[in-house]
Design brief:
Subcellular location: Membrane
Strand order of the largest sheet: 1-5-4
CATH superfamily of the largest domain: Amino acid/polyamine transporter I
CATH topology of the largest domain: Amino acid/polyamine transporter I
Number of domains: 2
CATH architecture of the largest domain: Up-down Bundle
Largest sheet: 3 strands, antiparallel
Pfam families: AA_permease_2 (PF13520), AA_permease_C (PF13906)
Distance between the termini: 26 Å
Family: Belongs to the amino acid-polyamine-organocation (APC) superfamily. Cationic amino acid transporter (CAT) (TC 2.A.3.3) family.
Structural class: mainly alpha
Membrane topology: Multi-pass membrane protein
Protein name: Cationic amino acid transporter C-terminal domain-containing protein
Shape: globular
Helix content: 55-70%
């Protein structure tokens, strides 16, 4: 098989795929410190996931959607989040990199999709950190006597002549967390672990004290006349869609992959344990709160504090508020931790300036990227009320979840057959002469060989040798299987998009809505059936780091994951999509005028995996 010479222009640049282990990632002086174990990963995952939202969500969702069945909504949402967690766990153990979803999509799908995912993740973490910081000061003010009782230097102020309310407390907290992250991953993870444990203790207090009250009053919240499902199954499912966002944050664990001592073992366990702990705590809090106060009598703004106050425990408000502050601080750390690592990975790949790829020799963290990200998030937190932009954060997360699930399907059925080699790697493996001959045969430097002539030549040679004929037939069958699998994956993704868009367009008349759902089903179901019937690629076992976690129930689990995340994406609202669209358009321009021509894959040659394996084994034998 001939070498494919990579190009830097046109559609091909969008489809360039990088190897699992990037040379730049292993360059001297660019290594991150391997300091994290499974306990620290669990602390990072739980701390990044459990935010202050749980202290508010229980009231809103119980009153408007789930009623006493609130715990069931949390369970369903937790199972839906676990589908994405399974996909992340396999890719994180196979391809451990600080790039997370950006890195996975670059390996499995291509540079164009990877750039958009990385660009949207940058927006997600910046806005997420700013929004979280803005939420801390109102909760903190309660300890000083009320909403406007913070010291003057930390209180919010409205700038004269401008319709802007600045928040010095939020900006100061962002800068403080940024300084902590610059000290090193060991130090920052230790602090986050302490804050997370304290937050978990507050939640345990809510559970234990709530159970004490519940047994005293006979769990009156479950004795309502409307029954356990006052809004029916649809209400429980609507509640699940709302509380699903309370599980976002476990993907932060994947962004620390290069800093984990044993990523193949610890990353899947850390992701799974963090999500399980969050789900258990959420469900226990939900069971207790709806049991001590009827769902229709809950305060939508402060459901937990008001629930204790109704039973004579007004002092519990300070405990619950401290839990909210701790949760927000931990989530702030989880929002600011991944962003410089995403920027670092994109800079390693040449898509961003090399400034972001610098790793401090003493702390072994990307200090420059951390400082820039922290300053941007602090400026936003100081000047802007970013709560209205919260939907944009969800778009980035759900896009990443969706692409990670698609990457699992590609990895299992059509993993990359070729790896890009730089000139230094070609020289070390003795492939430079073959590369020069390929360019000599192809003066345009492009892979424009006549495929039909090659097939005819192989077939002619195969007729002379039965062994060659058998190998030729096996190769043709494998090519056919890959084409069918690729077409089926495309059909599934298109079917999911059409089905979810049609089901969400409730403003359409009944007939067009049904036609859209039928078309989506016709594309989705046959594609899924085909993927179930055909064999998965043998190369999946040797792709990346072997011996790690394997996502179960493929292709069902990734397809359901794609379906859930796409449905949530479509229902985020037009305003969020317009704002994200503007941001992505800016990203497209940055890629066209900077990243496309400076990518580390511009001048590489794509070599079949079998050929590189053969050269490695032969060079190892000769040495």
């Amino acid at each position: 098989m001939a070498l494919q010479i990579g190009g830097g222009g046109g559609f091909r640049s969008l489809m360039r795929r990088k190897p699992v282990d990037s040379d730049r990632a292993r360059a001297e002086g660019q290594q991150l410190a391997k300091e994290l174990n499974i306990l620290e990963l669990v602390a990072i995952g739980v701390g990044s996931t459990i935010g202050a939202g749980v202290y508010v969500l229980v009231g809103t969702v119980a009153r408007e959607h789930a009623g006493p069945a609130l715990a069931v909504s949390f369970l369903i949402a937790g199972i839906a989040a676990a589908l994405s967690a399974f996909c992340y766990a396999e890719l994180a153990s196979r391809c451990p990199s600080a790039g997370s979803a950006y890195h996975y999509s670059y390996i499995c799908i291509g540079e164009g999709v990877a750039w958009l995912i990385g660009w949207s993740l940058v927006l997600e973490y910046t806005l997420g950190g700013s929004a979280v910081a803005r939420g801390i000061s109102p909760n903190l003010a309660l300890f000083f006597g009320g909403p406007d009782s913070l010291p003057w230097i930390l209180a919010r102020h409205q700038l004269p002549w401008f319709d802007v309310i600045v928040d010095p407390c939020a900006a100061a907290l962002v800068l403080a967390v940024t300084a902590l992250l610059c000290l090193g991953i060991k130090e920052s993870s230790f602090v986050q672990a302490i804050v997370t444990i304290m937050n978990a203790c507050v939640m345990l207090f809510v559970i234990i004290a709530g159970c004490y009250i519940g047994f005293q009053i006979g769990w009156e919240g479950y004795k309502v006349t409307d029954g356990y499902f006052p809004y029916g199954v649809n209400g429980v499912l609507a509640g699940s869609a709302t509380v699903f966002f309370a599980y976002i944050g476990f993907d932060t664990v994947a962004s620390t992959a290069e800093e984990v001592k044993n990523p193949q073992r610890d990353l899947p366990l850390g992701i799974g344990a963090a999500l399980s702990i969050c789900c258990l705590l959420y469900m226990m809090v939900a069971v207790v709160i709806v049991g001590i106060v009827p769902y229709f009598a809950m305060d939508p703004d402060t459901p937990i504090s008001s629930a204790f106050a109704k039973h004579g425990m007004q002092w519990a408000m300070y405990v619950v508020t401290s839990g909210a502050v701790l949760a927000l601080c931990s989530t702030l750390m989880g929002s600011l931790l991944p962003q410089p690592r995403i920027l670092m990975t994109m800079a390693r790949d040449g898509l961003l300036p090399s400034f972001f790829s610098d790793v401090n020799k003493h702390t072994q963290v990307p200090v420059k990227g951390t400082i820039v990200a922290g300053i941007c998030a602090a400026a936003l937190a100081f000047f802007m009320d970013v709560s209205q932009l919260a939907g944009m954060v969800s778009v980035g997360t759900l896009l990443a979840f969706t692409i990670v699930a698609v990457s699992i399907l590609i990895l299992r059925y059509v993993p990359p057959e070729e790896v890009p080699l730089s000139s230094s790697r070609r020289e070390s493996m003795g492939l430079n002469q073959e590369y020069d001959e390929e360019k000599g045969r192809d003066p345009l430097g492009d892979d424009i060989c006549d495929t039909s002539q090659i097939k005819d030549l192989i077939a002619t040679e195969a007729m002379k040798d039965p062994l060659l004929e058998k190998q030729h037939k096996g190769k043709m069958d494998e090519m056919k299987r890959r084409k069918i699998a690729a077409f089926s994956i495309g059909s599934v993704c298109l079917g999911v998009l059409v089905l979810t868009a049609s089901a969400s367009a409730t403003w359409l008349p009944f007939l067009p809505l049904c036609i859209g759902c039928i078309v989506g089903g016709v594309l989705l179901i046959p594609g899924l059936v085909v993927l179930c019937c055909i064999d998965q690629d043998d190369g999946r076992h040797s792709f990346g780091h072997s011996g790690g976690f394997m996502c179960p129930f493929v292709p069902f689990l990734p397809v359901v994951c794609i379906l859930i995340n796409t449905y949530l994406l479509i229902n985020l609202g037009g305003d969020a999509w317009i704002r994200v669209g503007i941001w992505l358009l800016i990203g497209v321009l940055v890629y066209i005028f900077y990243g496309r021509t400076r990518s580390s894959l511009v001048d590489v040659v794509y070599v079949p995996v079998a050929k590189t394996d053969l050269r490695r084994s032969s060079s190892g034998f000769m040495s």
